[in-house]
Amino acid sequence: MSALTIAQKTDITNYVNTYRAKNQAPPMSWDESIYAVSQNWSNHLAGMHVIQHSGNNSYGENIAFFQGYGSDPLDLIKKAIDSWYAEIALYDFSKPGFSETTGHFTCLVWLATTKFAISVSIDIPSTEAYIVMNTSPPGNYIGEFDKNVLPLVGGQTLSPSGNVLPPQLQTHKRIIFQALYNIVNAINTNQPKSLIISIINNIIHQINTYPNF
User: Fold this and answer.
1) Which residues, in sequence order, are bridge partners of residue 136?
2) Which end of the chain is less packed: N or C, by CB atoms within 10 Å?
3) If phi over 0 gives left and psi between -120 and 50 gives alpha, with beta otherwise, what is residue 126?
4) H helix intervals, 6-157
């Protein structure tokens, strides 16, 4: 168990809300009752050495797993948030909806969500870290993505470095570039193989759909 200080909770809240603001979502507030739920589940995952969702439908839930990245809880949680938001490169705002490859991102920026908490449990001997974020009200409801997952402010597109791209570069080539970046990011953050495979499949789809660009 890695209990967070008040200062760390404030830092995490600001970090999450900075990402949400990029997609026109209002800030969320930290909730201690949700934190207890998140901490209990991350403790369970660390104790069992498994990666799985709790199945608690009262909350939205994002999970991340890292190994070999130290034991600083704030660094690990921010690393998880970064990896969740990075899925934006795979989200098709012209066809809003749920996907296994973008569900962490959509949960993070879901407009109607107002409260959240994130916990981390670290197994020191193995350097395994289990991060759990719970949100309320939960998001990722089918049929509500167009109202709750909004594009970047001004309809802009970001490069992997976070810089706004000029309109002439917002092309299918850029989508593939971002997907390639996401492969590297997924490998570096020890994301599940299923996510990496999905990103690769997305690149193949783009090439097959637009063979001449």
Assistant:
1) 115
2) C
3) alpha
4) 6-22, 32-48, 73-85, 103-109, 145-148
3-class SS of residue 151? coil
Q: What gap in Å lies between CA 88 and CA 174, rounded to an integer? A: 13
Q: What is the DSSP letter of 168?
A: G
Alpha-carbon separation of residue 45 from 29, 65, 121, 131, 184 (angstroms)? 25, 10, 8, 9, 26
- The Cα–Cα gap between 30 and 158 comes to 27
- 100-138 confidence digits (pLDDT tens): 889 999 999 999 999 999 999 998 888 899 999 999 999
Assigned token pair, 46: 């660390």
Q: What residues are paired with 130 via a beta bridge?
A: 65, 121
Listed residue (70, 41, 8, 67) closest to 134, CA to CA? 41
Burial call 150-179: b when 16+ CB within 10 Å, e when fewer: bbeeeeebbebeeeeeeeeeeeeebbbbbb
Return the structure tokens found at 130. 């289990």
Instruction: Report the candidate in 113, 111, 119 with the shortest Cα–Cα distance to residue 138.
Output: 113
* The model's pTM: 0.75
